[in-house]
Amino acid sequence: MKKSVRYGVFGLLAFAAIWAVIARWHKVHLVPSAQDTSSRAIRIGTNRALGTVTPYVTRDKGFFQKNGLQVDIVDFNDVTTLMEAFASGQIDVALVGIAPSAIWQEKGVALKVVASANGGGHVLLTRTDTGISDLKGLKGKKVATPKPGTTTDTLFRAQIVENLAGLNPDRDIQIVPSVAASDMPTSLFVSREVDATISWEPFASEAETRFKNAKVLFDASAEWRKANPESKQLYPVNVVIARQAFIDSRPDDLRKLLDAHAETIRFINEHPDAANDFIARETQLDKAVVAAARRRIDFTAQVDVDASQQTLNWSKQLGYLKQVPSAAKLFDLRFLPREE
Question: Which one of 178, 200, 227 terminates a domain?
Answer without folding.
Answer: 227
